[in-house]
Amino acid sequence: MADHDPTYDAECLFCRIAAEEIPAEVVFADAEVVVFQDINPKAPTHLLVIPRRHLASADDLTDSDADRDLLAALFTALRRVARDGGLEGYRIVTNVGADAGQSVFHLHFHLLGGRPMDWPPG
């Protein structure tokens, strides 16, 4: 990936996965979104859904048409992989900042399913 590309951060693990520089078990990918298996699953189904474009977290989203379109693409992918995985119920989680448990600073959603979920989650 070109170093001058403002949508790519060479230091970002998820940017590198999206660019296929680091292998991952990808279950879905299109021009805007990549979905892959979490390497430390917390449920029988635990997928990570990321935009190809680098944003550190949901806090970096704006009210621009581009970000609205990106969110639509992310949630469309979430719904698709949940249905393809046969999930009748599932949880979608995103963490914003280290205090919330974010450890990779690239916007991502966890899709968890395949077992009953407890509430409150944490």
Give a structural overview:
Helix content is 21%, strand content 20%. It is built from two helices and five strands. The protein is globular. The chain is of the alpha+beta class. The longest helix is centred in the middle third of the chain and has 20 residues, at 65-84. The mean pLDDT is 94. The protein starts with 12 loop residues before the first helix and ends in a 9-residue tail after the last strand.
List the helices and strands and how they pair.
Blueprint lengths: L12 H6 L7 E4 L3 E5 L7 E7 L13 H20 L5 E4 L15 E5 L9
Antiparallel strand pairs: 1-2, 2-3, 3-5, 4-5
Number of DSSP-assigned strands = 5
How helical, in percent, are the residues?
A: 10-25%
- The CA-CA distance between the termini, in Å, is 37 Å
* Class by alpha and beta content: alpha+beta
Arithmetic mean of pLDDT: 94
The portion of residues forming beta strands comes to 15-25%
The radius of gyration is: 14 Å
Largest sheet, described in full?
Answer: 5 strands, antiparallel
Strand order of the largest sheet: 1-2-3-5-4
Low-confidence stretches: none
Helix tally equals 2
The outline comes out as globular
SSE string, helix = H, strand = E?
A: HEEEHEE
